[in-house]
Write a structure and sequence with these properties.
Length: about 800
C-alpha cells in the first residue's frame, strides 16, 4: 500500500495537505521533520510533517515531495500539540503558528530572497560544487529568489544547498538584514599600572593622606578585588566607597585609576568559575518562596505579587537553581522591552553559560543555534530567556516557566496571527510538559488576581521592598488649580520644579514620564481651528520639533512643518497637548546645567539606541531622563530619587474597559523606579483630576481597592475576567463596503448570541493606512461553550465569504482581546 504524509504548510490554510512518499521515505520520516514540497503551480515550501499514514486524499491526487530536509525532527510532539492548541484557541491556522514559531531560516521557500553575506571571509575552495555555483551567482546579482537558484542549478531541490550555505553563514535571507544586536559596554576600573605593586600602592596611599575621600576609593577598590575575582564596575566601586562620580573621575584623570570597557557577550559566557553566589532570601522572600513551592506541589499555576523592588528576581533565581538541580530546563519570559542586558547579565552572573537568550534582534543563525541547543538539551541552553516568541522553542525537558511582568499587554501578539497571549499559552504549555509555572508582577492583571480568588491559581506575595526600603511617597498635584494660581512653569508645577531642583542638588537622578512622544500631538490654527491630518489615517499629525516635521504615528507619513494654515493661510498656528520632546525642551531652559536624556521610540530606533540611553543613565552620565512607557519596564536604577508624571490625564481618559487598570499599573510601575536603595523615593503625579479614584489608589499603593472596584465594573458590564471576549475586526478601503459587510456579519452574530454582541463600531482611529476599520465585540458568558461559539462564528464566516462583494473585506479574530 502506498504511503502518505500530512504536512503543515507555513501559510493560512485551514487544512493539512497530503503528499505521497516512497516506502523508504515512510520509514525514515517522522512527525516534526521538514520536507520541501511543491504547492500550486510553481511554488515550493518547507513544510512540517505531522503524520505518516496510508490514507490517500479523496479530493485531489497527492503530489510527491521534492526532498527531505531534516535528519531528525526539529519540532517535538509536545510543541505540535501546543501549536494546534494555539491555532484552535486563537482562531487561526496551524500554518500561521508554524510560520511564527520557527526561525525564518527553517522556512525557505520559492519566493524567499537570498543575499550573500558580505561580512564573512572564507575559503572558496571549501565549497561543494553546487554551493559554489550559488555563491558565484550571488557575485553577479545581489539578490536571488529561491526559484531562480533552482534555474541556475537546473534542479528542483535547492533547499538543502541553501540550508548548508545558511549554516556556513555564507548567505543571508532578505528579511534578516537588520542591525546586529550588541549588548552594552560596561565601564570597569582598575588601579593604574604604576600602582599595582605593593610599593607603588603604599606610595600612593601615602600621597593621598590629605585626600581622605580619594584614599577611601582606593581602599574600597582593594577590598572589592580581594573579595571578588571579577572586574569591578565603576558603579560598584562608587557604592562600596560611598563616593561620587566626580571623585572617581578625578582619580581617572590623574591616572591613578584606569577605566576600561568590557562587552558582555550574549551567547558564549566564559567566566564560569566566576559565578556569583546566589543571594540568600530574606524572611519575606523566603515565605513567598515556600508558598510558591506548596502551590507547585498542588500543580497550580502560581501568581507572585511582589511590590516593586521586593526582590522577585532573587526568588526566581532560587526556583531556577532548584529546577536546574533536577536537570530540567527553565523558560523565563518577559516583555521585549524588559529584556535588558541588565537582567541578562544578572542571570549570567549566577548561572554562567547555562543562560541562552532568544531574541528577535539576534541574527537568524544565532536563533537557529539556540533552537538546536534547546532541542538537544545542551548545557548552554538550560535557562532560556526571551520575549513572547521564546514560547515556541523545542524544550524536551522543561521543568519551570517564569512569566515576569505578567500584566504586560505586550505578551499578547496583536498582528499578524496567531494573536496569542504568551502568558496564557505558557500555562497550557506548562501543563503539556508537566512543568511548574510562576507569574510575577508588582501590579498583577485583574485576570490573574481573579484566577487566584477563584482557586485556579496559587498565590504568594511580598509586600515589602528588599532591605526595608520604604515604598516611595506619592504626591498628587492639581494642575488645574496650579494653572489658575499661575503657579506653573510651562508644563511643570512649582512643586515638581522644586523637587527636581532639590534632587539634582543632592546629586540624585530624576525620571519624568509623559505618555506621548513628539513635541505636541496637535497643531491647530487659532484663526479657523483647522489642524493638519494624515491623508492615510484618521488622526492629526504629531508635531516633531527636532526634525521640524509633522508625522503620523500610525503610518510612516510625514511632511515638513507648515508655516501657515493649509485651510485659511493664517500663520497663527498653535500646539495642543504635549509630548516628551516638549518636556525635554522645557527642561533645557529650566535646568540649563542638568544633563538630560530622552527615551522614546524616536530616540531608541537607531543602533543600540535603547541600551545606550539606559547605560548612560545607569552610569549617571545623565541627570534627568524623560520618556514614555519604555521607562516602566523593570529597570533597576540605583540613584533615582524622584519620579515625575507630567500628566496622568491621557491615561485616565482612554476609551477602553482596561484603561483604569492600565493606568494603575503604569503609574505604579513608573513610581517603582524611585528610591530603590536606602533613601525613600518621591513621586509627583500631575493631573487635572487628582481626586480620581485610580490616582488615589496609586498614591496609597492600594492594589486591593483597585482590584475590587475594577472587578465590580467588569461584572456590571460583563467584561473579562467574568466573561470572555472575542473581537472581530473588519477592514476595507471602501467606507460603504466596510459598513455593509460589518452590518451583515453582525446581524448573523446577533441571531446567534443576541445581546452579547456589541457593535459594529469605529475605533477612535477609524482609518489606518487607508483601510477603514470596524470592530464587533462578542461577550461569552461563563457557561457558554467557547468551542461552540467559535464554531458558529466560523460557520457565519463561510456564508460571509460566499458573498462575492464581501470577499475582499478582511475579517480578523482576536480571542481574549486586550
Ligand atoms: P523586583 O524584581 O521585585 O523589582 P529585584 O529582584 O530587582 O526586585 O530586587 C531589588 C534589589 O534588591 C536588587 O538590586 C537586588 O539585587 C536586591 N536584592 C533582592 N533580594 C536580595 C537578597 N535576598 N539579598 C541581597 N540583595 C537582594
Ligand atoms: Zn486656519
Ligand atoms: Zn497615517
Amino acid at each position: 500500500m502506498p504511503y502518505f504524509i500530512n504536512v503543515i504548510l507555513p501559510i493560512p490554510l485551514e487544512k493539512l495537505f497530503t503528499y505521497s512518499i516512497s516506502d523508504a521515505e515512510a520509514s525514515f520520516l517522522k512527525p516534526g521533520m521538514r520536507v520541501a514540497v511543491p504547492f500550486g503551480k510553481s511554488k515550493i515550501y518547507s513544510a512540517l510533517v505531522h503524520e505518516v499514514h496510508q490514507t490517500a486524499p479523496t479530493i485531489y491526487e497527492a503530489k510527491e515531495i521534492d526532498q527531505i530536509l531534516d535528519e531528525k525532527p526539529i519540532v517535538t510532539a509536545i510543541q505540535l500539540k501546543h501549536w494546534f492548541w494555539i491555532a484552535d484557541y486563537y482562531m487561526c491556522s496551524i500554518g500561521e503558528v508554524f510560520r511564527t514559531a520557527v526561525p525564518s531560516a527553517f522556512l525557505l521557500e520559492s519566493e524567499t530572497l537570498i543575499l550573500k553575506n558580505t561580512k564573512i571571509v572564507f575559503d572558496e575552495t571549501t565549497l561543494l560544487d553546487d554551493e559554489f555555483l550559488v555563491f558565484e551567482a550571488l557575485q553577479h546579482q545581489a539578490i536571488l529568489r529561491v526559484h531562480e537558484i533552482s534555474a541556475i542549478l537546473d534542479r528542483k531541490n535547492v533547499l538543502p544547498v541553501l540550508n548548508r550555505l545558511l549554516d556556513k553563514n555564507i548567505i543571508l535571507l532578505k528579511e534578516e538584514v537588520y542591525e546586529q544586536y550588541k549588548p552594552k559596554l560596561v565601564r570597569y576600573v582598575k588601579l593604574g599600572k604604576e600602582y599595582r605593586t605593593e610599593v607603588g600602592l603604599e606610595t600612593l596611599l601615602h600621597s593621598l593622606t590629605r585626600a581622605p575621600k580619594q584614599s577611601q576609593v582606593i581602599l574600597s577598590l582593594f577590598q572589592l578585588q580581594a573579595t571578588q575575582k571579577k572586574p569591578i564596575k565603576v558603579s560598584e566601586l562608587e557604592t562600596a566607597s560611598k563616593s561620587s562620580t566626580a571623585i572617581i573621575k578625578a582619580l581617572i584623570d590623574k591616572e591613578i585609576l584606569e577605566e576600561y570597557y568590557i562587552q558582555t557577550d550574549r551567547i558564549s559566557y566564559s567566566n564560569e568559575e566566576d559565578n556569583s553566589d546566589i543571594k540568600s532570601l530574606n524572611e519575606f522572600q523566603e515565605e513567598a518562596f515556600l508558598a510558591i513551592k506548596q502551590s507547585f506541589d498542588k500543580n497550580l499555576p502560581t501568581l507572585l505579587y511582589g511590590v516593586t523592588s521586593s526582590g522577585k528576581t532573587e526568588v526566581y533565581v532560587k526556583l531556577i537553581e532548584e529546577t536546574l538541580a533536577q536537570h530540567k530546563q527553565v523558560l523565563y519570559l518577559l516583555p521585549e522591552i524588559a529584556l535588558t542586558t541588565q537582567l541578562i547579565t544578572r542571570l549570567q552572573d549566577y548561572f554562567g553559560e547555562k543562560v541562552a537568550v532568544y531574541h528577535s534582534r539576534y541574527s537568524v543563525q544565532e536563533r537557529v543555534e539556540v533552537w538546536h541547543n534547546i532541542l538537544e538539551n545542551k548545557n548552554k541552553a538550560q535557562i532560556v530567556i526571551g520575549a513572547r516568541s521564546a514560547l515556541f522553542m523545542p524544550f524536551t525537558n522543561l521543568g519551570l516557566i517564569i512569566v515576569d511582568e505578567e500584566h504586560e499587554s505586550s505578551f499578547k501578539q496583536y498582528d499578524p496571527a496567531p494573536r496569542y497571549h504568551a502568558r496564557d499559552a505558557a500555562i497550557v504549555m506548562a501543563k503539556l510538559h508537566e512543568a511548574h509555572i510562576l507569574l510575577g508582577s508588582a501590579t498583577p492583571s485583574i485576570e490573574s488576581f481573579y484566577n487566584v480568588q477563584i482557586g485556579k491559581y496559587g498565590y504568594a506575595t511580598i509586600q515589602r521592598r528588599y532591605g526595608n526600603v520604604l515604598m516611595p511617597e506619592i504626591e498628587l498635584v492639581d494642575i488645574k488649580e496650579q494653572t489658575r494660581k499661575k503657579r506653573m512653569k510651562g508644563r511643570f508645577s512649582v512643586r515638581l520644579f522644586n523637587e527636581i531642583t532639590d534632587t539634582l542638588e543632592n546629586g540624585e537622578q530624576v525620571i519624568l514620564f509623559q505618555n506621548r512622544r513628539g513635541y505636541a500631538p496637535i497643531l491647530e490654527c487659532t484663526t479657523c481651528g483647522h489642524s493638519p491630518q494624515c491623508p492615510n489615517c484618521d488622526v492629526s499629525l504629531t508635531y516633531h520639533q527636532h526634525k521640524k516635521q509633522l508625522r503620523c504615528h500610525y503610518c510612516s507619513y510625514h511632511i515638513a512643518l507648515l508655516t501657515a494654515c493649509e485651510a485659511c493661510g493664517s500663520s497663527t498656528l498653535d500646539t495642543k497637548g504635549f509630548g516628551t520632546e516638549q518636556v525635554e525642551q522645557e527642561l533645557e531652559t529650566l535646568f540649563p546645567d542638568a544633563k538630560i536624556g530622552r527615551m522614546d521610540l524616536d530616540t531608541t530606533r537607531g543602533k543600540y539606541g535603547y541600551e545606550k540611553i539606559i547605560t548612560a543613565f545607569e552610569q549617571q552620565e545623565l541627570d534627568i531622563l524623560v520618556g514614555t512607557q519604555m521607562l516602566t519596564k523593570g529597570l533597576d536604577f540605583r540613584n533615582v530619587n524622584l519620579v515625575g508624571i507630567m500628566s496622568a490625564d491621557t491615561l485616565l481618559n482612554f476609551p477602553d474597559f482596561r484603561a483604569h487598570e492600565r493606568c494603575f499599573q503604569l503609574l505604579t510601575q513608573v513610581s517603582g523606579r524611585a528610591g530603590r536603595t536606602k533613601k525613600r523615593g518621591k513621586v509627583i503625579i500631575q493631573s487635572f483630576n487628582p481626586y480620581h479614584q485610580i490616582l488615589k489608589q496609586v498614591s496609597t499603593g492600594d492594589y486591593q481597592a483597585m482590584y475590587q472596584e475594577q472587578l465590580y465594573e467588569r461584572e456590571q458590564h460583563k467584561y473579562p475576567p467574568v466573561n470572555r471576549i472575542i473581537k472581530i475586526t473588519f477592514k476595507h478601503k471602501e467606507y460603504n463596503k466596510l459598513n455593509e459587510a460589518a452590518e451583515w456579519f453582525t446581524k448573523g452574530l446577533r441571531n446567534a448570541f443576541g445581546v452579547h454582541v456589541l457593535g459594529p463600531e469605529f475605533p477612535s482611529v477609524s482609518r489606518i493606512r487607508n483601510q477603514y476599520i470596524k470592530n464587533v465585540l462578542i461577550k461569552i458568558p461563563n457557561g457558554q461553550s467557547l468551542v461552540k461559539t467559535k464554531k458558529s462564528i466560523r460557520r457565519l464566516e463561510k456564508s460571509f465569504n460566499a458573498i462575492s462583494q464581501y470577499a475582499s473585506v478582511r475579517v480578523i479574530y482576536n480571542v481574549d482581546y486586550i
